[in-house]
Amino acid sequence: MAEPRGVAGRSADRFVLLYALAWAGGTIGYVPLLTILLPARVATLAGQSAGVDWLAYIALAGAIAASTAGILFGYLSDITRNRRGWIAAGLVLSCVLLVLTGRAATLPELIVAIVGWQLALNMMLGPLAAWAGDVVPDSSKGLLGGLMAFAPGLGALSGAIVTHPGLAGDDQRLWLVAAMVALCVLPVLLMGPPAGRPGQAAEPVLPDPTAPEPTALDPTGPLAEPAPLASGVLRMWLARLAVQIAEATLFAYLLFWLVSLDPAVTDNQTARLFSAIMLVSAPLALFVGRWSDRNDRPIAPLQVCALISALGLLAMALTTDLAGAMLAYGLFGLASAVFLALHSAQTLRILPRPDRRGRDLGLFNLANTVPSLVMPWLAMTLVPLFGFSALFLLLAVLAATAGGLLRRVAPRP
């Protein structure tokens, strides 16, 4: 009996590796464009000064399109029970529209192109996120989260590759990005998940989506959601939102804070600090994820990481020198990066309805987009009046609250 289990385990691990590669492909699909190529294109069309405002409009329109598409296409993959078809269609359309964004000759055309591209990209990403929940067993969710932690680094690396001097012109860079995305996503589409695992299949056998929704009059229905489980879902969402607000705020304002402590700080120093944290956090998340699998403790690492994030933010609020600031941010950055990576995978354990997994993950993704709307107001309200220390204290309270929220979360049995 040991041999078949070993073969099945290796087959499952192969799918997790291919899936993590595909997830990195999705990250490669948007990181180079949104961080480097799009700002450069906007500056060319609008000029440096007006480009800041136009970039904000484009980012807002794109975020709305991405949030809507994630819910819509996740739900469509639920009701059609065909994740792979939607992922493939989104891959093709997003790669085509990515290349076409380079042909936009005016700013309104660029906004339309970006919105269309975001819709297509999330046609791929929404069902892709749900597919992991259908196929990856709970015993490998920690491994999955750890491997997914490598995606941001690969996204940043792809940006460095396509902008390497002399490698490609502006139009060719978008072709290179599209090619890298396809090379990362196609293997999991072509090879698919392991066959013959009990309860797991390439396309999950889910309850009939046309069946009526369970109601309060039928609390014993097969899809009825127990109250503790519903509470756990909400707690997981709020915990991610709290940590994501802190992470997004530091991503945007880290340089300004460091310069306020030492005017000699450069953007290159800040970039190197980001890169160092990214390099260390990915293997750390993989190690912690494997530990959570082996010890069947999926939520405990999230609690610990949230509390360490709060300690890092508290240290940032109290420090007055550059060295202490970098160490404190390093503590926060590592803990929050591991939290967000593992949270993405462990969320799949607590969603109450397998037949609506794509829709629910789309709603969960709002915890990633809402902070972009909340964060500027927090900074503009607190920093001018009370300084960065007040902002970091508030973020520390949010991170600690996230740890508290997770104390009563129990994975779905």
Can you describe this structure?
The protein folds into 2 domains: 10-191, MFS general substrate transporter like domains (Growth Hormone, Chain: A, Up-down Bundle); 227-408, Growth Hormone, Chain: A (Up-down Bundle), CATH 1.20.1250.20. Helices cover 79% and strands 0% of the residues. The protein has 14 helices and no strands. It is globular, with a radius of gyration of 22 Å. Residues 1-8 and 196-228 have low confidence and may be disordered.
Helicity range: over 70%
The computed structural class is: mainly alpha
The general outline is globular
- Low-pLDDT parts are 1-8, 196-228
Query: For this structure, what is the CATH homologous superfamily of the largest domain?
Result: MFS general substrate transporter like domains
CATH topology of the largest domain: Growth Hormone, Chain: A
The helix count comes to 14
Question: What radius of gyration results from the CA coordinates?
Answer: 22 Å
Short description:
With 413 residues, the protein is mainly alpha-helical.
Keywords:
Growth Hormone, Chain: A; 79% helix; 413 residues; 0% strand; mainly alpha; disordered N terminus
Question: What is this structure's SSE topology?
Answer:
Layout: H1 2-46, H2 48-80, H3 83-101, H4 107-135, H5 141-148, H6 151-162, H7 170-191, H8 227-261, H9 267-295, H10 300-318, H11 322-350, H12 357-364, H13 366-386, H14 388-405
